[in-house]
Amino acid sequence: MLTRKGKYGLKALVHLSQVPEGQLAFVGDIARENNIPKKFLDAILGELRNAGFVYSRKGKLGGYCLARPAEEIRIGHVVRVLDGPLAPFPCASKTRYQPCEDCDVETCQVRRVMLDVRNAIAEVLDNTSLVAMQAAGGPEAFASAQIRA
Amino acid sequence: MNAAGHERITIIGGGASGVLLAVHLLRQPSSDLRVTLVERRGQFGQGVAYSARQRDHRVNVPARGMSAFADDPGHFYRWLQQTGEPLPDGDYTFVPRRLYGRYLEDVLREAAALRPGRLQVLSEEVLAIRQNPSGTDVALANGTSIAGHVGVLAVGHETQPARSRGIAVRVGADDDTPIDPYAKVMILGSGLSMVDAWIALAEADHRGPILVVSRNGLLPRGHRDVPPISIDAADVPFGTNLGYIMRWFRALVRETQAAGGDWRSVVDGLRPYNQRIWQSWSERTRRQFLRHVRPFWNVHRHRVPPHLHQRMVDAVASGQVTLIAGHFLDVSRHEDMARATIRRRGLPAEATETIDVARVYDCGGVSVDVRASSNPVIRDLVASGAARPDALNIGLDVTTTCDVIPAEGAVSGRLFAVGPLTRGRFFEIEAIPDIRVQCATLARRLATGS
């Protein structure tokens, strides 16, 4: 599920989506304004850079910006990179599958439901862009809006 | 003519994609649709791919994957069983391609019988399709025209080699005349069409050396009867850069192989998501993929039946076929020979090499610049601004719902495209398993008007 890492990553990307084009944002500013530990944010932005969601420039005047327009970045795509395959339970991932010790995969009814759940999660997250999430008022507001809907 | 709805649909092109679209339209529960299918060759279901005559020009997908209907995967196999054709490997048999053309004809006939009077087929050449406030007008070479509400381009593969200068030919084309069986020939490309060209030569008992020139000197891999691994959309890293997804993909292949599996299972398991992956990428990533990964992806993804693969490997081992990694630069006529200029991979720009051969078969670059299409309909649409090339210039620009995008302004909702022409948006849209889904989706939309 969405870890703190995923949540911080999404907040950082929303922050970057508000930076005027052609400008860079400092890690320190992103961390302070979003209440994210800076060291953790460094690691998260590094991963987002490796996956092609952000660009960075090193040095004194260095910083980050989005590598793609915010409307093209889907939050499901970001969460997969930061938190791994979308899966409510470890056994519900097909590629990062981890069996539970105490049940049989073939007959586990819980797993079957959870597979449907994860596909529903993916559907929502993959159809929501950074722009849409920002309009909904940040990750928490968006999540509760989804629950109400 | 009715101004609202999509009652009259004109399909330009009666190859596999045109026939599949017509069939899916006729099978829609809505009974209002009238379909006109126009094909210049007068044979339906037998476009560039499925008109091949050689015995060993096989469908490169086993019978079980070739049904016209994604929701009835056994349909083609049941048809095959009725024909009495030999099926040595059951539904894993790779059947001759012309059989598939016959299947499509039968499927079309059946769908037409389902809706008497709803399908009209015309053997005519289309010159242009124009849009007007009430619909579309399709101009034919015989001077008449067809009025309708909606037009769909299903013109299939480009029939003229892009790099030919009138010298290189496509296999089986009219200018592919018989040649001296001991002559040296050159084939450009490393894909399935290259294999087709080689098969045609082998069937004609060609004894001379065959040089195969492609960027990386690769051969398509052979099929193996292994099941695809199960992957959900939630597992697939969409929207990343190329490096990230390639690392993910290679790790998945390693894990699958470590567990005793086969790389083909991973390639095939990912297939349902290929279009979505492509569409999730930035233009830059798509460009990088085409440039750096596509040759390797294609030889793993578009495989040949095992026995043909073995024959090709043997032909390379025996020295009859020589694989050359390099760039094809030019071809000119030199007395009665074709003089090809190539540069082997890794050599400096000036290290070009000329090779005289009796024939050059151009089997590369199915991606085409639509502005220079050999099809007048496409050229006219692009020239008039009713259509435009996609951003990567590998086909016609369409939306994810197959609407043709004009040079300026919004889509009209009256002009659509299906099949290989839409590869800029759909990327893998050259094989039946992909085309049938695209056609079924468009048919549903046209029938319900939403």
UniProtKB/TrEMBL annotation, chain A:
<dbReference type="GO" id="GO:0003700">
    <property type="term" value="F:DNA-binding transcription factor activity"/>
</dbReference>
<dbReference type="InterPro" id="IPR000944">
    <property type="entry name" value="Tscrpt_reg_Rrf2"/>
</dbReference>
<dbReference type="Pfam" id="PF02082">
    <property type="entry name" value="Rrf2"/>
</dbReference>
<protein>
    <submittedName>
        <fullName>Rrf2 family transcriptional regulator</fullName>
    </submittedName>
</protein>
<dbReference type="InterPro" id="IPR036390">
    <property type="entry name" value="WH_DNA-bd_sf"/>
</dbReference>
<dbReference type="GO" id="GO:0003677">
    <property type="term" value="F:DNA binding"/>
</dbReference>
<dbReference type="GO" id="GO:0005829">
    <property type="term" value="C:cytosol"/>
</dbReference>
<keyword id="KW-0238">DNA-binding</keyword>
<dbReference type="InterPro" id="IPR036388">
    <property type="entry name" value="WH-like_DNA-bd_sf"/>
</dbReference>
From TrEMBL, chain B:
<dbReference type="Pfam" id="PF13454">
    <property type="entry name" value="NAD_binding_9"/>
</dbReference>
<protein>
    <submittedName>
        <fullName>FAD-dependent oxidoreductase</fullName>
    </submittedName>
</protein>
<dbReference type="InterPro" id="IPR038732">
    <property type="entry name" value="HpyO/CreE_NAD-binding"/>
</dbReference>
<dbReference type="InterPro" id="IPR036188">
    <property type="entry name" value="FAD/NAD-bd_sf"/>
</dbReference>
<feature type="domain" description="FAD-dependent urate hydroxylase HpyO/Asp monooxygenase CreE-like FAD/NAD(P)-binding">
    <location>
        <begin position="11"/>
        <end position="157"/>
    </location>
</feature>
<dbReference type="InterPro" id="IPR052189">
    <property type="entry name" value="L-asp_N-monooxygenase_NS-form"/>
</dbReference>
